[in-house]
UniProtKB/TrEMBL annotation:
Functional summary from the UniProt entry: Has a glutathione-disulfide oxidoreductase activity in the presence of NADPH and glutathione reductase. Reduces low molecular weight disulfides and proteins.
PANTHER family: GLUTAREDOXIN 2, GLUTAREDOXIN-1-RELATED
Protein name per UniProt: Glutaredoxin
Entry keyword annotation includes Transcription regulation: no
Source species: Pseudoxanthomonas mexicana
Keyword field: Cytoplasm, Disulfide bond, Electron transport, Redox-active center, Transport
GO CC list: cytoplasm
């Protein structure tokens, strides 16, 4: 029952970041270790994207990570979700 529906793909991972952000690097390294691709949105290069991130995440810090439409939060939030055993299911597109 926990399998992704037939024909469904894993949700897109969006990572809002800046050039000088050690937690952004850590988040990307962690996602890479999980074998996941992501779309990086550099808010330091595009003020409109920064505003979009703030409106979507209700936070101003980076990274802000989204898996599909689910706001995971920052790096620490993602690691806490991983330690709670809930990140893999989210990355696989499974719903709770």
């Amino acid at each position: 029952m926990s399998d992704t529906p037939q024909g469904a793909t894993a949700p897109e991972v969006i990572l809002y970041s800046t050039a000088i952000c050690p937690y952004c690097v850590a988040a990307k390294n962690f996602l890479k270790s999980k074998g996941r691709d992501w779309t990086e949105v550099r808010i330091d290069l595009d003020p409109a994207e920064r505003e979009k991130m703030i409106a979507r995440a209700k936070r101003t810090s980076v990274p802000q990570i989204f898996v599909g439409e689910v706001h995971v939060g920052g790096y620490d939030d993602m690691i806490a979700l991983h330690r709670a055993g809930k990140l893999d299911a989210l990355l696989a597109g499974e719903t709770a």
